[in-house]
Design a protein that fits this description.
32% of the residues lie in helices and 22% in strands. By secondary structure, it is of the alpha+beta class. It folds into three domains: 13-84 and 311-481, 3-Layer(aba) Sandwich (Beta-lactamase); 88-157 and 263-305, D-tyrosyl-trna(Tyr) Deacylase, Chain: A (3-Layer(bba) Sandwich), CATH 3.50.80; 183-258, no CATH class. The strands form five sheets. A five-stranded antiparallel β-sheet has the order 2-1-17-16-15. Strands 5-4-3-14 form a four-stranded mixed β-sheet, with helices on one face. A hairpin with a 6-residue loop joins strand 10 and strand 11. It is globular and about 80 Å long.
């Protein structure tokens, strides 16, 4: 008990001491830190309501932002589309009769809208909950001879950014945007691990659809305390190689991977549930594919699935740092603003044009994706702080955007930061981390009541990610004394 008390006392004392350091002292400490001898780092702190710079250091240097790039994408989505925007996925029925209930051959044709939340675990607790509105409509309209299901995936180009690396794209966080996304575009591989340095055994794959369809070559070892398994594979292939390690002595240990061809999985799932309700045709001679343009078939919109509002999608994009969601928003903006197929290129054009129209100087921004997974992205802390200040002054964007940022000491990727200091619960920030790049940007309320917009980026440090996080924490805590 005594040891616990002393830990609490000295832990509090350290936080109190840090909070009394000014930013200049923190920076001087960085300059003497051997771990930062080869690093590049920058920060920019603005008065949120005016955009006036209060403090900055190397604010014009272009650095890798990691997932802090998501603030540029999600805020542009809110600004261009509005917080109440929804994706609409249309289910059309093609039928070979004048009256739909008398058709002997019908086909479901589902138009993908690029909706990243389509049966996402963030929003739907079960398949029955997700599919029940469609089933009810089909029963109501007496559609019960469905011969085939076809999905239209062409709203996006379904190509991942060309600067994503091979070691990322097979993993769940490497799931890109798809014109027809389903269940977060990921599947799970479960392991049983044994003694240290032994080979971990693949126990099962979920969903079952992938059990026989997916070829898994596993070289995963039992070692360490964290999930360091790396999944490799072409995004559109059904072959995965998994290396690295997972903790020893684990049962049913989950490793998540990127899902290939999510529309095919959707078609399989929908076929099973239609069969359950006896809506599948028993006509064995019916064609498996009916062309939508076939003039002998009539077409009727039977049901429109409406996604949650954009404000909710942005919330999960930033709080969970979901790359799939961010890339989907990017390509959605590209499709809507260009009137063409959604691509990474026209999505970036839509976002940069939006911020330029808001008076943001984007010199130093090199945007390769919407999520920050690419190491080819660069941005300056001045750009990020300026964007945050612009958002703060726009009531149509700020409430939804601010609510999507994790709170220091409370939730998300900020849950363990700034605890026991004034910054706890008074700072909201999007975090970012990829190998040797870490950043934080958001808002903080100071002890004097000022609202600040800030961006902090560090690249190419020599210490561990955990140690770098602790070094940056000193700067974040010092912000409250401005």
């Amino acid at each position: 008990m005594k040891h616990y008390f002393l830990t609490l006392f000295f832990g509090f004392s350290v936080n109190l001491l840090i909070s009394q350091l000014d930013i200049t002292a923190v920076i001087e400490g960085y300059k003497k830190d051997k771990d930062l001898q080869h690093a590049q780092y920058s920060f920019c702190i603005m008065e949120a309501s005016t955009g006036n710079i209060l403090k900055e250091y190397n604010a014009e240097i272009a650095l890798i932002p990691a997932s802090t790039m998501k603030i540029i994408t999600t805020s542009a989505a809110l600004g261009i589309l509005g917080k109440d925007f929804t994706y609409k996925t249309n289910y059309n029925v093609l039928y070979n009769s004048d009256i739909i209930e008398k058709a002997t051959e019908t086909k479901l044709y589902v138009d993908g809208s690029g909706d990243p939340s389509f049966n996402s675990s963030y929003f739907y607790s079960s398949d029955s909950l997700f599919f029940s509105p469609l089933i009810n409509k089909l029963i109501l309209k007496k559609v019960n001879n469905i011969t085939s299901i076809t999905t239209n995936t062409t709203y996006f180009d379904n190509v991942i950014p060309n600067s994503w690396i091979w070691g990322d794209i097979g993993n769940y966080f490497g799931a890109g945007a798809n014109g027809f996304s389903y269940k977060d575009n990921k599947f799970s591989i479960y392991y049983n691990s044994g003694e240290v340095n032994s080979t971990a055994i693949v126990e099962s794959i979920t969903p079952n659809y992938f059990t026989n369809k997916m070829s898994i070559q596993s070289q995963v070892k039992s070692f360490g305390t964290e999930d360091n398994a790396i999944v490799f594979g072409d995004p559109n292939s059904f072959s995965r190689t998994i290396t690295g390690s997972i903790p020893p002595h684990k049962i049913h240990y989950e490793v998540e991977a990127q899902m290939p061809e999510p529309h095919l999985f959707f078609e399989n799932e929908l076929k099973k549930i239609l069969d359950k309700y006896a809506l599948i045709s028993t006509n064995k001679n019916a064609p498996t594919i009916i062309k939508e343009a076939d003039t002998t078939f009539k077409k009727q919109l039977i049901y429109t699935h409406v996604s949650p509002k954009l404000s909710k999608i942005v919330y999960f994009t930033n709080t969970k740092s979901n790359n799939h969601y961010a890339e989907s928003l990017l390509k959605t903006l590209g499709a809507i603003k260009s009137g063409k197929q959604g691509t990474t290129e026209n999505g970036i054009e839509a976002i940069t044009s939006f911020w330029k129209s808001r008076g943001v100087d984007l010199s130093g921004l090199h945007m390769e994706d919407g999520s920050g997974l690419s190491r080819a992205n660069t941005i300056t802390t001045k750009i990020q702080a300026t964007v945050l200040s612009k958002i703060y002054r726009d009531s149509s964007m700020y409430t939804s955007f601010n609510a999507s940022l994790p709170i220091a000491g409370k939730n998300g990727s900020m849950i363990n930061l700034c605890k026991g200091t004034f910054a706890e619960n008074n700072m909201r920030a999007k975090t970012g981390y990829i190998n040797r790049a870490r950043g934080y940007c958001g808002y903080v309320k100071t002890k004097s009541g000022k609202e600040l917009a800030f961006s902090v980026l560090f690249n190419n440090y020599d210490c561990s990610p955990k140690d770098m996080k602790m070094k940056i924490e000193k700067l974040l805590i010092a912000l409250v004394d401005l």
